[in-house]
Amino acid sequence: MSDKPTVAIIGASSDRSKFGNKSIRAHLAQGYEVFPVNPKGGEIEGLTTYASIADVPVEQLNRVSLYVPPKVGEKLLPEIAAKGCDELWLNPGSESEQLVQAARDAGLEPIVACSIVDVGESPGSFGD
């Protein structure tokens, strides 16, 4: 196991124009061990993609970053809470008042902001 911080990108995409892909590249550039999560599985940016966060092979993640609609996020909360994370990032478009409250009710402290900007990258610097 490495000493790198870990992040699961839920809603990871192989489409390089989507934020679910830019986030993978931004976190990799900043030294994170990245776990893409997408029900389709496969490989994204050369990384094994996990069908669910439960499949990610670490006990607890430093960060989980959501790139899915709020209703999808709400359905995934029990699985995210069961996996455990230090930070739950609700990126623009993935947040709703209901999701924020549901996350708090699940014992998570959601951060409503762009995780790409947080790691010191600009989403615009990751072209297609």
UniProtKB/TrEMBL annotation:
Organism domain of life: Bacteria
Database matches in Gene3D superfamilies: NAD(P)-binding Rossmann-like Domain
Entry-linked InterPro entries: CoA-bd, NAD(P)-bd_dom_sf
Record-linked SUPFAM superfamilies: NAD(P)-binding Rossmann-fold domains
Pfam families (UniProt xref): CoA_binding_2
CoA-binding domain span: 1-94
The name this protein goes by in its record: CoA binding domain protein
Protein's organism: Adhaeretor mobilis
